[in-house]
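HUMAN: Now follow token order:
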Amino acid sequence: MQLLLTMSSIVAEAGLGKDIWTIPFDKITFILLIYFIDEPIYITVVSLTKISILCFYLRIFPDRNFRRAVYAVMVFTGLYMLAFILVSLFQCRPVDHAWKYWNHEHAGACNNVNAQGWAAAIFNIVLDIATIILPLRQLSKLAMNWKKKVQLMLMFGFGGFVTLVSILRLETLIYFAKSENFTWDVAPFGYWSTIEMDIGVMCACMPALHSLFKRIWPKVFGGTARDKLTGRSGTSGLSASLGADRSQRSHKNTDTKDFIPLMDVNSTEAQKEGSKRNDV
């Protein structure tokens, strides 16, 4: 992500977002070269972000059919990434025609870049939607308190916002391929792409951030002492539900051998303390 932000700063300094007639010729070629390099990086980032979220699903949900569905979405995401990286790299013949075509002084040919961009964006949106809706049925089975439900809603709300940004980004593609002033017209396409990647990474990090927030604001993100003893809320409730679901399937589902329940350390300590009290 830092590389992409650095490249965005460099290309902005070179003249992206300005009228093409105010930019030196060598800067125009440089902007197109940076954009050419940026395309496969963008595809890689959005794809790996989805795969990261899907790996998180595999970590907490042991259901065999659900895991098969997750693996299927992961495969399609990987194929999407590979296919469109290759299409982006070889969109023109010769390859350097992608950043030299603008002055009409070099021989070469390019694919329909507009159609290519639309196809990549549509596939990306479909995979986003699949990633968001995939765990909803599993989550509906869990017994959680209202705070945990709100936190999950916020997490998936971020995922929905990523999809919305992808849709808004589609509008900017209309002007890109046919533009005679692409340094001006491509600017919205660039910042929508950057926003999409940033929010996607934030969404993928939210499950891990929950542990940090729970330490900083335990009253908001943690359960009560009584809940920790009974395992009815917060992360304890989630772990208890998933752990019970796993124990019911462990004898007939060999796919759950890699399942790692998200156990709450505080909950475990509270349960041990409760056992000691009972023994006394």
Summary: The longest strand covers residues 92-93. Confidence is low (pLDDT under 50) at residues 224-270. The two ends are 55 Å apart (CA to CA). Strands lie at 92-93, 109-110.
